[in-house]
């Protein structure tokens, strides 16, 4: 009997909708919440275990199943749960995948099942109201210390501001929603709730690094920023569909890591720098947590004269790392070197994805700015 019940659960796993984790979309889930009726992956099952008042989990393959539990799973399943628990997810709300950090996945699962934010839209106030203020720990630009700072997001003004003192009249910085990006960077920032916010200041990228001890708070901030961007873009592109706008709300970096680089004359030695590929902007920093990039390189498309080559010109000297990359732009060549062949391949793939993509009209304006930089 026990074998038959387990076989019945395994058969349910093959139904359309159940072949991917109900929460992160990971293929071939082999755990289940027998109180919610969903099939989930090992990683998400760990999060479900932390909310036992809502979800109780079992291994599909290893645990014993009772008849009533099998029947419950049969009458529910991932599609039915999605219809119920995700019926009112705002279009701007970030739906994490299996490649996202633990915090985003945990708060998504808690929001769905524990807080039921997507069945009761009044619970979405913290990120959908168009205004949010509160305190976040912000890394100091020069000393690297995290200090509590007041942040204010106002959709009406189209800005995120922060203040050095809670009673300060003037903000320390005003970040325009139009040029804002936010992405979780727990490893880089050294905190599981670490969020990197970037904005353009005088057309150069400026980074700030923040966190909040409460996971729900920082994810609410993240989704509030996405909501503000969504409403800004709806006005800026009145004919665009939600599906067109959602990918533009926030973006993860295409690739980050250390490489060596040399200067424009290619006569000086190579120096180790931290590189970030953010869409078409390749930025390099002395330290991963620097506020400003030491330099930025625009990576255009193949039609505009940009190519990426394996290796370095034969005469190149001064690099310590053996695996070279040459980026050819209409103006000059950029010579880079990676420590391992694996890293080199990953960077070349990231660059080629960008180079192979045709440029959008607004990207030509960005390219023109880079060309006229002093």
Automatic annotation (TrEMBL):
It is found in: Cytoplasm. Residues 7-126 form the Arf-GAP domain. The keyword Cytoplasm applies. It comes from the Eukaryota. One of its GO terms (molecular function) is zinc ion binding. Keywords: Cytoplasm, GTPase activation, Metal-binding, Repeat, Zinc, Zinc-finger. Residues 129-230, 252-356 form the PH domain. GO terms for cellular component: cytoplasm; plasma membrane. Coiled coil: none annotated. SUPFAM superfamilies: ArfGap/RecO-like zinc finger, PH domain-like. InterPro entries: Arf-GAP_dual-PH_domain, ARFGAP/RecO, ArfGAP_dom, ArfGAP_dom_sf, PH-like_dom_sf, PH1_ADAP, PH2_ADAP, PH_domain. PROSITE patterns: ARFGAP, PH_DOMAIN. This is Arf-GAP with dual PH domain-containing protein 1 isoform X1. It comes from Odobenus rosmarus divergens. The lineage of its organism: Eukaryota, Metazoa, Chordata, Craniata, Vertebrata.
């Amino acid at each position: 009997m026990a074998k038959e019940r387990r076989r019945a659960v395994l058969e349910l796993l093959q139904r359309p909708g159940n072949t991917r984790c109900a929460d992160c979309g990971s293929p071939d889930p082999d755990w289940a919440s027998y109180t919610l009726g969903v099939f989930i992956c090992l990683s998400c099952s760990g999060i479900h275990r932390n909310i036992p008042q809502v979800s109780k989990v079992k291994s599909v393959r290893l645990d014993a199943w009772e008849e009533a539990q099998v029947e419950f799973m049969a009458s529910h399943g991932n599609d039915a749960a999605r219809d119920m628990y995700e019926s009112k997810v705002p279009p701007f709300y970030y739906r994490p995948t299996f490649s996202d950090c633990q915090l985003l996945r945990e708060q998504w699962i808690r929001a769905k099942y524990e807080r039921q934010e997507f069945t009761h839209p009044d619970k979405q106030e913290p990120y959908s109201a168009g205004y949010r203020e509160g305190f976040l720990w912000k890394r100091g630009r020069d000393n690297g210390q995290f200090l509590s700072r007041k942040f204010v997001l106002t959709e009406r003004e189209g800005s995120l501001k922060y203040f050095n003192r809670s009673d300060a009249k003037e903000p320390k910085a005003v970040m325009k929603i139009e040029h804002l990006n936010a992405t979780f960077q727990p490893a880089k920032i050294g905190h599981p709730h670490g969020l990197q916010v970037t904005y353009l200041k005088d057309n150069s990228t400026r980074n700030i690094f923040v966190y909040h001890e409460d996971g729900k708070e920082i994810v609410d901030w993240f989704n509030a920023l996405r909501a503000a961007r969504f409403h800004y873009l709806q006005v800026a592109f009145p004919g665009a569909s939600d599906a067109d706008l959602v990918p533009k709300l926030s973006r993860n970096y295409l690739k980050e890591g250390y490489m060596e680089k040399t200067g424009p004359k290619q006569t000086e030695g190579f120096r180790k720098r931290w590189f970030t590929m953010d869409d078409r902007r390749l930025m390099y920093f002395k330290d991963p947590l620097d506020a400003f990039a030491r330099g930025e390189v625009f990576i255009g498309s193949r039609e505009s004269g940009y190519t990426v080559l394996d290796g370095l010109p034969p005469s190149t000297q001064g690099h310590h790392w053996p695996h070279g990359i040459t980026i050819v732009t209409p103006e000059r060549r950029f010579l880079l070197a990676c420590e391992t062949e694996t890293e080199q391949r990953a960077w070349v793939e990231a660059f080629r994805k960008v180079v192979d993509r045709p440029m959008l009209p607004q990207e030509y304006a960005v390219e023109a700015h880079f060309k006229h930089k002093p």
